[in-house]
Design a protein that fits this description.
This protein is an alpha/beta fold and 500 residues long. The protein contains 18 helices and 18 strands. It has 3 domains: 147 residues, Fumarate Reductase Iron-sulfur Protein, Chain B, domain 2; 162 residues, FAD/NAD(P)-binding domain, CATH 3.50.50.60; 161 residues, 3-Layer(bba) Sandwich (FAD/NAD(P)-binding domain), CATH 3.50.50. The structure holds iron/sulfur cluster (SF4).
């Protein structure tokens, strides 16, 4: 394998580039292959269709192999060894590249698609000083998908059976990462999932046009091969309590995420046709047999769909809404996303925002709902909106948030056959309400000793991911799930020592 020697000193300058490295900056960035907007509106398949082998090799060759410490590694929350993986792709050793990503990451094919790379690994990429950053995420997705589909997931080295049992609550990113680490350490792992299928957020929170369901399904099947058992349709806190799990298992991991949609608290928000984002997304994206009772069947579709919010979830909703309109008789319908702040204040990935606009979604900024107006049958028909202006927060405030102020006399009415509320998520308070020993810092957000071990205030109970940090990225949930698994591993070690 060709190895690029480290060059430069403590603060290496781009001028230190050797000729080979400099030559690499002349390789033009390739646009990732995608379905066209016209084609993709007729399906729920992934927009990114994946690199062909040759395209991936060229894209990987754009990496200039920076002198250590490589900025992309530092920019990645799980510190993937990106340069080594890209060198393996360049040398057409896709399996080795995938193994390098898997050494530090439990869900590389997921994060390769869904990380906001522009502010993580690619945001730190030196090549961005010459051209577009190397498409690190899509190369990570390429080689790990290549391995999964051509060779299958590699079987890891497994520790001998420890005789210890661990319950993992939640099969989203943090739960799957913790379950895999714990299974590899030789422990018996049982995962409790409240939805009918394992995969949590990956299945029930992310539309198929961003992440194919088969990726989460395949990962869960692989974990079963490692001995992990999934128990679905079981909500801890409702169907079984943490206290019960403590009696049956040696340790418990809570990775339940932050799944509760914020309430908007406006007149008419209980009208028929007003949906919370999660219900709209799962019913719009998944077949009924994968949904719980009471949430089966498509959501309503109409000519005028209003979405409220300015983040990744609202982008998922508007793009799901456009597909439903095209596929269910409203090809000329309108989907409008109303956001109370300015365009640049939206918390949405640029790629998703561009895709939404390509698919015909309209955006209105500095506009916030005042009330939802229904007809005589109690169904939403209009929304009264109000124009807002942003003002910087008081200087005394430590967080540079903007304050939005309504503009008097600016109200206007818009038509709405349905409304989708995508205004953010918070923790689920149920488990803490049934388990007084578990302290929280806010509803559904557990207090932990440190994010480096995930130890809660209850001995033997650990937590990590969005139920500790609040709604955050998948990759940070994976990183936290790994750390908590290692915290559990050392806790189980103390039990072993005590028993001996
Ligand atoms: Fe980049 Fe995310 Fe992959 Fe890390 S996990 S290399 S941040 S895409």
């Amino acid at each position: 394998m060709q190895v690029y020697p480290k060059i430069g000193g403590e603060d290496p300058s781009l001028l230190d580039l050797d000729p080979d490295r400099y030559e690499r900056t002349n390789i033009p960035a390739g646009a990732p292959p995608e379905q066209s907007p016209a084609a993709r509106l007729h399906n729920f398949e992934m927009v990114f269709t994946g690199y062909h082998d040759a395209q991936a090799v060229v894209e990987a060759t754009r990496c200039i192999h920076c002198p250590s410490p490589e900025p992309c590694i530092l920019g990645c929350p799980v510190h993937n060894d990106i340069p080594s993986a890209l060198l393996a792709i360049e040398q057409k050793d896709f399996e080795q590249a995938a193994n390098i990503f898997r050494a530090t990451h439990n869900l590389p094919e997921v994060c390769g698609r869904l990380c906001p790379q522009e502010v993580l690994c690619e945001g730190a990429c030196t090549v961005a000083g010459f051209d577009r950053a190397v498409n690190i995420g899509k190369l990570e997705n390429f080689c790990t998908n290549w391995q999964r589909t051509q060779k299958g997931f590699p079987m890891p080295e497994m520790a001998p059976r420890s005789g210890r049992r661990v319950a993992v609550v939640g099969s989203g990113p943090a739960g799957l990462a913790a379950a895999e680490e714990l299974a590899r350490d030789g422990h018996e792992v049982v995962v409790y999932e409240e939805w009918p299928q394992p995969g949590g957020l990956l299945v029930y929170g992310i539309p198929g046009f961003k992440l194919s369901k088969e990726i989460a399904d395949a990962k869960c099947a692989h974990l079963e091969e490692l001995g992990v058992k999934f128990i679905c349709n079981t909500k801890v806190g409702r169907d079984i309590q943490v206290d019960d799990l403590q009696k049956k298992f040696d340790a418990v991991f809570l990775g339940i995420g932050a799944p509760i949609g914020h309430s908007i608290g406006l007149p008419g928000d209980d009208l028929k046709g007003v949906y919370q984002a999660t219900e709209f997304l799962v019913r719009g994206n998944l077949p009924s047999d994968e949904l719980p009772e009471g949430m089966k069947g498509l959501p309503e579709v109409g000519a005028y769909i209003v979405v409220i919010g300015g983040g990744d979830t609202s982008a998922d909703c508007v793009r799901t809404a456009r597909r439903l309109q095209i596929q269910h008789g409203f090809p000329d319908g309108e989907v409008v996303d109303y956001y109370r702040g300015a365009e640049h204040e939206m918390r949405v990935r640029e790629e998703e925002y561009v895709h939404a606009q390509e698919e015909g979604v309209k955006y209105e900024f500095h506009a916030s709902p005042v009330r939802f107006i229904g007809d005589e049958k109690g169904h939403v028909r209009q929304v009264e909106m109000q124009k807002m202006r942003s003002k910087p927060a008081d200087k005394a405030q430590r967080v540079p948030i903007k304050i939005r102020i309504p503009i008097p006399g600016s109200n206007f009415i818009v038509p709405a056959d349905i409304v989708v509320l995508a205004i953010g998520y918070g923790g689920d308070p149920l488990i803490a309400s049934r388990t007084p020993e578990l302290k929280t810092v806010k509803p559904g957000i557990f207090q932990v000793e440190s994010e480096l071990n995930g130890a809660t205030t209850m001995p033997g109970v650990y937590a990590a991911g969005d139920d500790v940090r609040g709604a955050d990225l998948i990759v940070t949930a994976v990183a936290a799930g790994r750390h908590a698994a290692w915290g559990i591993e050392s806790y189980l070690g103390t039990l072993t020592t005590r028993a001996a």
